[in-house]
């Protein structure tokens, strides 16, 4: 997650519902996908369910998507949600019966169901908020 588009004095405290995650890296400036992952702490990273994305910086987290459902991720600063600092992760069904999403309610308004259905099951999900059950996510 990166905050280099708007110069400001405050960080963005992000929270992910339904999961704890590991903070594997953070820094200032733009994230460099060729250099920065080499410095990730994959041995003993901090475990959290919220993290501060530094102003003019980035943070990388990793979590195991093992809790099927639709999970909200958002900035705690309410005004920032109006800027788009919120999203939903849709963690799709796993193979076991207790890893299945419940069916959508029959009385769900028309059109709303489309927001919860992955129309391309071969998609990796990165960047769309769709993840496969038990898939490690680096964001």
Description of the structure:
Residues 118-133 have low confidence and may be disordered. It is built from one helix and ten strands; from the N terminus they run E-E-E-E-E-E-E-H-E-E-E. With 139 residues, the chain is an all-beta fold. The strands form two sheets. Strands 1, 3, 4, 6 and 10 form a five-stranded antiparallel sheet that branches. The chain starts with a strand and ends with a strand. The protein has one domain (2-138): Sandwich (Immunoglobulin-like), CATH 2.60.40. It holds the Pfam family Cu-oxidase_2. Residues 7-93 form the Plastocyanin-like domain. This is Plastocyanin-like domain-containing protein. One of its GO terms (molecular function) is oxidoreductase activity. Belongs to the multicopper oxidase family.
């Amino acid at each position: 997650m990166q905050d280099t588009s708007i110069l400001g004095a405050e960080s963005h405290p992000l929270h992910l519902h339904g999961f704890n995650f590991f903070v594997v890296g953070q820094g200032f400036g733009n994230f460099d996908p060729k250099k920065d992952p080499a410095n990730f702490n994959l041995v003993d990273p901090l475990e959290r369910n919220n993290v501060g994305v530094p102003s003019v910086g980035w943070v990388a987290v990793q979590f195991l998507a093992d809790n099927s459902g639709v999970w909200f991720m958002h900035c705690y600063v309410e005004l920032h949600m109006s800027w788009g600092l919120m999203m939903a992760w849709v963690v799709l069904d796993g193979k076991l019966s207790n890893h299945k999403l419940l069916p959508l309610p029959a009385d769900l308004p028309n059109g709303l169901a489309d927001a919860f259905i992955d129309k391309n099951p071969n998609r990796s999900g990165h960047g769309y908020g769709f993840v496969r059950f038990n898939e490690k996510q680096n964001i």
